[in-house]
Amino acid sequence: MVCANSMGQHPTEFKDFGLCTVYSPFWANLLHTDIFLAFTPGLLHQLHKGIFKDHLVKWCLEIVGEAEMDAHFKAIPDFPDLWHFKQGISAVKQWTDTVYGIIHIPCMTTEHKQMQCVFVGLLAGAVPSQVLVVARAILEFFYSAQLRTHTSNTLQFLENALAVFHANKDILHKLEVREHFNSPKLHQLLHYDAYWASNKRDYEEQMALWLQCQEAVFLHSSYLE
Predict the structure, then answer these.
(1) Per-residue pLDDT tens for 145-183?
(2) Which of 12, 97, 149, 204 could form a Cys-Cys staple with 104, CB 3.0–4.6 A?
(3) Is residue 94 a contact partner of residue 59, using CB atoms and an 8 Å limit?
(4) Distance between CA 96 and CA 192 in Å, rounded?
(5) Nearest C-alpha neighbor of 96 from the set 113, 83, 87, 109
(6) What share of the chain is helix, strand, coil (3-state, %, to 5)?
(7) CA–CA separation, 128 vs 172, rounded Å?
(8) Are 9 and 2 in contact (CB under 8 A)?
(9) Alpha carbon distance 225, 212 (integer Å)
(10) How many C-beta neighbours within 10 Å does residue 103 have?
(11) How far apart are CA 96 and CA 89, in angstroms?
């Protein structure tokens, strides 16, 4: 099947199994090249659109059900500067700033951020308490990660939130909404730690040097192997 697809025959099994053609990338044969080292933490694609939209929301929709989730969003009372999702969220296919007739400066994460403001509250009573702990831990990690500056206390809060998530995530497996947690976006949550390697003074330059050293160690280890 794979050989047939590579020859341009487009077997129907590829579509049936949701497979996509993967072509040989230009960097495949470059020495000491690991494409995963090029992936750096990003709030937009990793947290808001990745962990929240593609993981947490989908997990909770499967637990609660689309109709019940929509009902909770519709029931949220109006409040200044807080979006009211009058039609719920399950029917929204393309997230844009004008999806509910509200015009803002274009930002694909606006809806996600607005949903995050009320998400834990609307889950209360609709999901098992341990799922609520998971959702809260993820969102607390988000809010800490978005801070423009960090202290030892805020970074510890970041690590604590991630630890709470990992300590309670098995509930998703028990509820059969997640078979495993081997996801690149979930793994990347572990890599918000370069600040700890600095002496907390002129830390931006130290963080860059730390990342450079980590890459050098990795390349040397690859050479030795």
Answers:
(1) 888 777 888 888 888 998 999 999 999 999 999 888 877
(2) 97
(3) no
(4) 28
(5) 109
(6) 60, 0, 40
(7) 10
(8) no
(9) 20
(10) 7
(11) 13
